[in-house]
Write a structure and sequence with these properties.
single chain, 489 residues, alpha+beta, 3 domains, five-stranded antiparallel β-sheet, 9 strands
């Protein structure tokens, strides 16, 4: 299914948010998930944006052109005013939700940013190559540990009280010994003697039957076969005794090595992340805008700030303070910046940087969001910004995660102490009291618990949040104009 098909289907759905969330969980394609995520963010904001009674969305816009004034003071004045507390600001909790830019191909800024991005990408790729090597090592270790577990399971059967299991374990180990240990003797191995010119056809079956040297003497075989069989069974019994210990040691060594490799993977991932983040942030977006001309020295930049402030029921009326909302409600303000600038290089003896001056567009948008929608919006915008970085550094080992958890969480069992000390008896008595009086805490909590808010309280709180969001947006818009000497009323 393409994004166009999803958009067509979305037009017929009433609950658009739930529909897009389900599609996001079901979809496997990274590219399509990114497009669905963008559509979900857009849908969340459209439904949450404050509207007038005429159903028109509220937006306050400012546009002015000033080549002499740099763009940084505009951004930082807005940021500081949003997060400063009264009377010098709106007292919002502010986050940056978008940062995109594009420079014309012939500008010095394009070359400067491109060079820095290339350095970050080269360093990131070197780290990713090391990460891939460690991942391959982890996969090989896991396969080795699985083989060890299979072998150790045969030894467990060998020590079992069940005759059937014991016999099955013995036969399995003998087969492993013939195929992996005895086979190294070439023409002198059991397999070679059985199939070779000497025609010791009974040797293999006799070896699988006997359990020790005494059993060999009771067999109806010629002395030549018995001598070979005694030597083979003696060698096998020594291997059986020592191989279990060595196998357990090797498994413990491999398990320790697995833990060190997983720790190394985490470390290399942390080292690679800053380079990937920097390269991602220096990546230019193609706006396909007529404002960007390849032959000109100009650039286009888009930034967004999002501020939120909780609206509590008691702000509607003091009597509502006895109610608890299931979901907190927030009055929110989003400020979108669109800069079309001409970068000017300022060089010093040690470094160089750019200042930006040009046309500025500011858009102030009020929103009302509950706690759940706001969390969803913040998460999706975070994924949108960091999707590539997460895919590359948070290496997906989901198929191996069960095995990793199994081997890394193994612990030696502590022997249980059978003595009843005074301390342990005291703990038992204390535990008994807690079991008796524990439920009384819940009863106490029941009487102290605030009542759940009825629907009219939730509705009035949302209306209050809408009023506050409208007021916040207008104050930010109006005071910005006044602070910058613009006409206001």
């Amino acid at each position: 299914m393409s994004i166009e098909d999803i958009k067509k289907e979305l037009g017929k759905i009433k609950n658009k948010k739930s529909f897009l969330k389900e599609k996001l969980k079901e979809e496997q394609s990274t590219e399509l998930k990114r497009e669905i995520r963008q559509l979900l963010i857009k849908t969340l904001k459209e439904e949450a944006q404050v509207k007038l009674d005429t159903k028109l969305k509220v937006e306050y816009k400012i546009t002015y052109d000033s080549m002499a004034e740099s763009l940084e003071p505009i951004y930082f004045w807005t940021l500081d005013f949003m997060r400063n507390t009264y009377p010098s600001g709106l007292g919002l909790e502010v986050s940056k939700t978008e940062e995109e830019f594009e420079a014309s191909a012939s500008s010095g800024y394009f070359g400067e940013v491109g060079s820095r991005r290339t350095v970050m990408q080269d360093q990131a790729m070197k780290m990713l190559q090391t990460i891939n090597t460690v991942i391959r090592s982890i996969i090989n270790i896991l396969y080795d540990l699985r083989e060890f577990d299979i072998r150790i399971e045969h030894y467990s059967d060998l020590h079992s009280h069940s005759h059937e299991k014991k016999q099955a374990g013995k036969l399995a180990l003998k087969g492993i010994w013939m195929d992996m240990v005895d086979i190294k003797k070439g023409a002198g191995s059991i397999n070679a003697l059985t199939r070779g010119d000497l025609q010791f056809v009974t040797l293999r079956d006799a070896f699988m039957y006997v359990e020790n040297e005494a059993d060999v003497d009771r067999l109806d075989l010629n002395d030549r076969v018995k001598n070979i069989l005694k030597r083979k069974i003696t060698e096998y019994l020594k291997w059986e005794k020592y191989s279990e210990e060595e196998l357990t040691k090797r498994r413990n060594i491999e398990k320790s090595y697995l833990r060190s490799q997983v720790d190394s993977l985490k470390l290399y991932t942390k080292w690679a992340r800053p380079y990937l983040v920097a390269a991602h942030r220096l990546k230019m977006k193609e706006f396909n805008s007529p404002d960007i001309i390849a032959a000109f020295n100009n650039m286009l930049m888009e930034l967004s700030l999002f501020g939120k402030k909780e609206t509590k029921p008691e702000s509607v009326h003091p009597v509502f303070s006895k109610y608890n909302l299931d979901k907190k409600i927030y009055a929110c303000l989003e400020v979108n910046f669109r800069f079309r600038s001409v970068p000017q290089s300022l060089r010093t003896q040690t470094a160089s940087h750019y200042t930006h001056g040009g046309t500025t567009d500011l858009v102030f948008k009020p929103y009302v969001l509950d706690e759940e929608d706001l969390k969803e919006l913040e998460q999706q915008e975070l994924y949108e910004d960091m999707e590539l970085v997460e895919d590359l550094t948070n290496v997906s080992l989901k198929e191996l995660q069960e095995d990793l958890d199994k081997y890394l969480s193994e612990k030696k069992e502590e022997p249980k102490k059978g003595k009843n000390t005074m301390f342990s008896m005291g703990k038992s008595v204390g535990k008994g009291f807690s079991e008796v009086f524990g439920p009384l805490k819940e009863v106490k909590g029941f009487f102290n618990m605030k009542k759940g808010a009825p629907m009219f309280v939730i509705k009035e709180t949302r209306n209050k949040a809408k009023e506050e969001a409208l007021n916040i947006a207008f104050v930010a818009y109006d005071l910005y104009k006044k602070a910058h000497g613009m006409l206001s009323w």
